[in-house]
Amino acid sequence: AAHFNIRYSLFNIHYSKKNCNPNSYENDIIYPVSGIVCKCTDFRCHIKFITFAGYINILIKLKMNLVKVKDKEFQLSISYKKISQAVQNMAERINEDLKGQNPLFICVLNGSFIFAADLLKKINLDCGISFIKLASYQGTSSSGDVKTLIGLDGDIRNRLIVILEDIVDTGNTIETLINQLKSYGPKDIKIATLLFKPNAYNKDIAIDYIALEVPNDFLIGYGLDYDGMGRNFENIYTLVKH
Ligand code: IMP
Ligand code: MG
């Protein structure tokens, strides 16, 4: 079971199987189509011949699973059903682990708004919920972007904080966040992220709760954006590299 990244043209359909975690990625995006004669090697499958019916069938399925955002195409990779299950599992773990600790959940805007809403509906603890944002502004030095935390209202001193993130990629964002939050004197800081890219992560900070691990591809939907677009998609889509 693996995710297929599909390229297609009229009579030459090319599947390339990507190296990804089959447990975290949606399986079988494209189903076998009648009339295809194909030659498969381990990681590639070149379709040599396809019937007209088979071709139409593939086009219909591709159309169902592809979205276009601005200049780029994205392929369905994690369905809402699968996301929901993973979020449910995370909520159950948090409910168990943090019982009686009155945590303060901090949703990191913008990307985590959908994840946070879905997760928090399933949390049955006494808890607080707050929202922050990391705002970038151009520093005067040549060091470039400086990120500063905005929106933290109320006292977090001696509170158990649970940061809710949409995705942890290199870990730069989470590191900046934790360093800034620490200066307010919380009791402890835990991290809960919807998505985690283990192959991109280069920090030592442990991620306490991960709903889904994903490969190093660019994803949109369920809060994640491409250039401001796509956050409203129910499913998660991955960039199709042409
Ligand atoms: P990091 O600082 O490299 O860990 O990246 C974290 C931030 O980069 C996330 O909060 C997102 O805003 C953004 N990001 C990382 N990967 C993706 C992606 O695949 N799609 C959309 N945004 C992403
Ligand atoms: Mg984010």
Topology of helices and strands:
Blueprint: E1 4-8, E2 13-17, E3 37-40, E4 44-49, H1 52-65, E5 66-69, E6 72-78, H2 80-97, E7 104-109, H3 113-121, E8 128-138, E9 145-150, E10 160-168, H4 172-182, E11 188-196, E12 209-213, E13 219-220, E14 236-239
Helix pairs in contact: 2-3
Bound molecules: inosinic acid and magnesium ion.
Residues 108, 111, 165-166 line the site of magnesium ion (MG).
Structure description:
With 242 residues, this protein is an alpha/beta fold. It is 21% helix and 34% strand. The chain has 4 helices and 14 strands. It has helices at residues 52-65, 80-97, 113-121, 172-182; strands at 4-8, 13-17, 37-40, 44-49, 66-69, 72-78, 104-109, 128-138, 145-150, 160-168, 188-196, 209-213, 219-220, 236-239. The strands form 3 sheets. A 6-stranded mixed beta sheet has the order 9-8-7-10-11-12. A 4-stranded antiparallel beta sheet has the order 1-2-4-3, with no helix packed on it. Helix 2 crosses helix 3. It is elongated and about 65 Å long. The structure holds inosinic acid and magnesium ion. Magnesium ion is lined by residues 108, 111, 165-166.
